[in-house]
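Annotators were shown the component list below and the corresponding predicted structure, then asked to write short factual statements about the assembly.
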Amino acid sequence: GQQLNQSPQSMFIQEGEDVSMNCTSSSIFNTWLWYKQDPGEGPVLLIALYKAGELTSNGRLTAQFGITRKDSFLNISASIPSDVGIYFCAGRSGAGSYQLTFGKGTKLSVIP
Amino acid sequence: EAEVAQSPRYKITEKSQAVAFWCDPISGHATLYWYRQILGQGPELLVQFQDESVVDDSQLPKDRFSAERLKGVDSTLKIQPAELGDSAMYLCASSLAVGADTQYFGPGTRLTVL
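Structure shown to annotators:
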């Protein structure tokens, strides 16, 4: 089945630093989504990407849909303590399938 | 703001017992999803409903898991009998329609099987 490789698995950064994480797939996706999950809560959608090469921002977050359609990137600028959590990428292949495939997540820790 | 409701938030049970989880999606959302999230992993789809009909249950272990959404609104996921490997977070999500990218997740039910 489809698999998403998300990296890094975890990262520790100083408050104010920028963060980059990425997700790669063994197959092509038509939609890329980025979610954030706080401890004990369900994932919350941050950014949705629908077109290869697309670059979309949501406040301090910027995500890109890779031109090969097999990868996506999420950047967080000027990190703050509330950015702590687990960030998941998810992809949808389309072609009649609406199922989302999730990565294993990147756990972000921000040191004040 | 409308939210997906789930109960209970936590459940501890012994193996071979039956457990049930409840989900109430956002009002007006036709599509409802049940996911299982093992610690350290991303959510994996178990079953997807469009109104009261099952759209996709290919990943549901049907020998012990069942799900229903009788009136096309709230839904129940049942496990009988529970096994040690079923310990996980069970997440419910809803969206306006099949294929709608914005799936809104509930807080989940954390199941521990002893």
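Statements collected:
1. The mean pLDDT of chain B is 93.
2. The radius of gyration of chain B is 13 Å.
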